[in-house]
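Hey everyone, long-time lurker, first post.

I ran two proteins through the pipeline my lab uses and got sequence/structure pairs for each. Pasting them in order. The first:
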Amino acid sequence: MTINILKEKLKLTCGAIFIFFLSTTFVFFGCYATYELFLWNDIIVYSWGYILIVFLPFTLYVMSFEILFFAISGRRLSKVTMVRLWLIIKIIIAFSICAVLIFSSIYKKELLSRNYIACSGIPSGWMPGLATKYVKEKSLCEKNGNN
């Protein structure tokens, strides 16, 4: 084995490991953000993106499998295996979308049952349409840069 081949394998392996750790970081961030939603603080900023961040990195895990396989064996995956991996990725994406829709509807109903009020406007630091600020008292809507 030449030194160039070893360098390429090392680059691919390091890239796959980087993708793995980056994906894991996103999963932990999403889990922590989702955990904070259930603390039921006086001010809650809800975003459907939290749930998406928990599930979508699993697609990167599947994709990094192909990179690792190539780096270790030097061979590409068979067409049948690639089709199966893409099917797994499609299933993960479909599950993620369903989880977002189901969680959002249940969580918003729970917020309303706990007498939270949705503030008008965009929460500070968020893009339009991505998050909604919920508060226990209407006077809290003006705090922390909402509107």
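...and the second, right after it:
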Amino acid sequence: MFPTFTSISTFELLNKMLESMMNESKAPFLAILMKDLHVLPDFHGNWSPMADPVSKGVICGLTLDSSEKQLALLYLATV
């Protein structure tokens, strides 16, 4: 059987999931959920304010957790 599609977008779903996680953990603000997860998206070099074409990207704090909640946190870290 095929999954049922709804009118909610992927981004709305992720945002609702993050809001739910924030309420469950009683976090004072959303960003505290990713206190151990950091993303520097310089995978093609850093071009501002001072150009560094050899700069490398970093994702720090990855675990083997592949749950929907962990993927939502990765989404939040890249926004």
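Reply from user beta_strand_b:
Welcome! Quick read of the second one: The chain has one domain: 10-78. The chain has two helices and two strands.
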